[in-house]
UniProtKB/TrEMBL annotation, chain A:
PANTHER family named among the record's database cross-references: PHOSPHATE TRANSPORT SYSTEM PERMEASE PROTEIN PSTA-RELATED
UniProt entry tagged with the keyword Oxidoreductase: no
Biological process (GO), any one: phosphate ion transmembrane transport
Gene3D superfamilies (UniProt xref): MetI-like
The ABC transmembrane type-1 domain, residue ranges: 87-289
Assigned protein family: Belongs to the binding-protein-dependent transport system permease family. CysTW subfamily.
Keyword Transmembrane: yes
Name this protein carries in UniProt: Phosphate transport system permease protein PstA
Stretches that traverse the bilayer: 34-59, 83-112, 132-152, 158-176, 206-227, 271-289
Compartmental location: Cell membrane
Automatic annotation (TrEMBL), chain B:
Keyword terms, alphabetized: Cell membrane, Membrane, Phosphate transport, Transmembrane, Transmembrane helix, Transport
Cellular localisation: Cell membrane
Gene Ontology cellular component terms for the protein in this record: plasma membrane
Family: Belongs to the binding-protein-dependent transport system permease family. CysTW subfamily.
Xref: InterPro entries: MetI-like, MetI-like_sf, Phosphate_PstC, Phosphate_Transport_Permease
Protein name: Phosphate transport system permease protein
Membrane topology: Multi-pass membrane protein
Amino acid sequence: MMNLNVNTESTPNIASKKWIAGSTKKKINIGEKLAYIGIYLAAILTICALVSIIGYVLLNGLKYIDLDFFTQEPSSMGRQGGIYSIIIGTIYLTLVAVAIATPIGVAAAIYLTEYAKETKLVKLIRFGTETLAGIPSIIFGLFGFVFFVIFWGFRWSILSGGLTLAMMILPTLVRATEESIKTVPQAYREGSFALGATKLQTIVKVVLPSSISGILTGLILGIGRAIGETAAVMLTAGSSLGVPKTLMDPARTMAVHTYILASEGLSKEKTFATATVLILLVLFINFMANMTANRYMKKTKVEA
Amino acid sequence: MKTHEKIVEAMLFICATTATLSVFLITFFIFKEGLPILSEYGFLNFIFGKNWSPTNGEYGAFPMIAGSVSVTIGALIIGVPMGLACAVFLAEIAPKSVVRVFKPAVELLAGIPSVVYGFFGLSILVPLIRTQVLPIVQKFSPDTYTSGYSILGGAIILAIMILPTIINISENAIRAVPSEYKHGSLALGASHFETISKVLIPAARSGIIASVVLGMGRAVGETMAVILITGNMPRVPGGILDSVATMTGTIAMEMGYATPTHQKALFATGIILFLFIMTLNISATAITRKLGGE
């Protein structure tokens, strides 16, 4: 079935000696060693890529960050000043996206885990959710542009951007919540039913509280995606520099700001500084997501 | 009590359909905006037309399709062997303590916003290709010239960006191979490496192929990193040091100032991109199902 000895048969004239001298083993070892070196190299390169990208941005950017950078509004297209309005824009947009996507995502996950039977329709729902996760952000941007910005007349605004982002993070939320609901032991539900609780009461009072950290993980990952998103946001929320006051105002997020500064070569210093804030946020978010994820993993392990 | 529970169930069901509904809405609107120009201009003329100059009313998307495809292939050539090696490393070779550090690192790699990758490529790779790679290439073919904004730069960054996808899915696939396979192979006298390359990887091939296809989807769909690195020249590339425009990059760059017809043409490009991604994602699912069922 499998040729495990291909390597050893390649050179017959040495092969006769191999049996005696035991050099067969040695020859395989050299080939294998090279392969192992390749594998280690790939692993080291991957870490190097990560360290150099983060290191490069942080080393160049940290020195430009001070309190003023956070509290001043950008001036002359972002060449000077801080990123106050951009932080406000980012927070607004993320909040709107999360506020829309979280209830829908959690509800969808509850339906899929607690109510759904494996009908054709449910299969279609699962397929749709999976498909939505695979759609690239620029397509979301195009869609958000015709649907929210033009068709519904929301124009370039936090509302348009937030709705588009909500669609993008929905699959993440559904998946994370589903996973954590699945880890809630069946005995909890049975216990609750035995006490006379209805299905809904069981879900609200037993299942959801036990899977809260999974929901949180999904939420945090969604926030991370919303903060880092550029293409879709640019096409739906615009790139205006002013401080947004209402949902209908356009806004610029940190990712969009980084892109515009970098692509138009406005200011290397401000690009580094903005990218640094962005990276620090992502590091923090990843750390938080890991913390919450570990917590529910540990918890269920103990209980199981 | 019963009716109230029924209502809640109905509401939960509506929420569950949101994602699927979104997919339908997205498909409908992208096609609605882009199809008219595709039929007016001719589908084949559009995808095989070599001239993209919206100011003259010429919309040939071939240069962008070629751009997206070439950058993606480049990313796969670099990213797949690296990703697979890392997956093997994580699943089979690395001690637990290393895995505990390596996995969050890979997650972090997936979490870095694409615009940061783009900025890194723009300020490190692009000058590096212009000042270091170009002189070496010129020794062999003196006519070569590059600004540094190139397929090569884009491919390297995209390769790093698709690593997490390839590593995670392949690692899971390798770990999912029943341990009897491994023990059987070792018991037959195969070395650890032979077991990996001739038993574990073939047994995990559906997951590995799926990871590559998904990585490909990510590379084709990536916008911000590519836009900053590849130079955005809508020309059919002749070599890996040429500048190219990708479908994603062109849409993102030109949408802001496009005239109505130009905008429709960008939506038509969006349709092509959408079809690319859908084909990739659906085949990834199909591969996992078909080979996984064996």
